[in-house]
Amino acid sequence: MRRFFPVDELARDERFAMITMRDRIGDPRSTLNLSGDQTRRSSNRLVPTRKDASDAARALMHGIFVGEIQALEGAGRTCWDFDDVGVSPHRAAEDGESELNAPEPIPFALKLDMARQAWDEARHVEISVKLSDWMGTEIGQFAENTVLFEAACSRDPVLRLAGVNRALEGLAIDVFTTMKEFGDLAGDPFLAFCEDWMLADEVTHVKMGSDWLRRITENDADRRKKALEFQSVVDKLFSFGGTRSDSDESPIGLARRFRELAGFTDDEITSIAEVSMESINERKAEASALQAGVARQAAAERFSAATGT
Prior knowledge:
mainly alpha, globular, Ribonucleotide Reductase, subunit A
């Protein structure tokens, strides 16, 4: 079986529409869109009292669904893409590689953890499909971006752990916590129970990533630094515009306690919070500049109309 599938060969049927992360953020139906009226709210948190709560919750649920598919595919690929430690890279010739550039092998116990995660993600896909149907959403009603699977395509297993298990599964902890709270507030016990169930799995997945990253890089400080820098890049991407933070101005809250249970240090959580607040402030500055530009343009038009110039 082939190893290391590129992201552009990710198989989907006609129900799915692929878009870039930039398009995803700009989708007016998306919970990630923080432009327009949302920049003037005192709170953007996903709660039932929001005017667009139904569409925002359904969009986020669909995003969870496609994310679970990609997480399943990523964990399954990791089980197969890398040989076991202590086993010669006998498959290198099949892939047109030499032993010198063959991917680094990984501990068999890490493969077992990835297999366990694939099992969990498959269950999450089924739960998410049923929840989407319960919320009145069809598969493909909202588009899919492939950022998660892209992070799972790295030839370095440590980067996969940093980008997928710690950054993106860490985001899933925040998302599931927010959706569980939304279900509680909306009086929807099905949504609240399912999100709480999946949240427990996500904490486990992130904890596995935290533990393995530290074990594999225990004697390689440079490699650990590179992995954490990659994680930071992914975290910043998903903090675009203040998508998730400690502030009520963000649709998604930062689940500090669950992140602690998943192996994040206080400094790491604080760093994510700071990046998110920087994004909020950048968004505010951009909105203010835009409004000032509109005001100047309107004033210029009134001046021209009054003077006939």
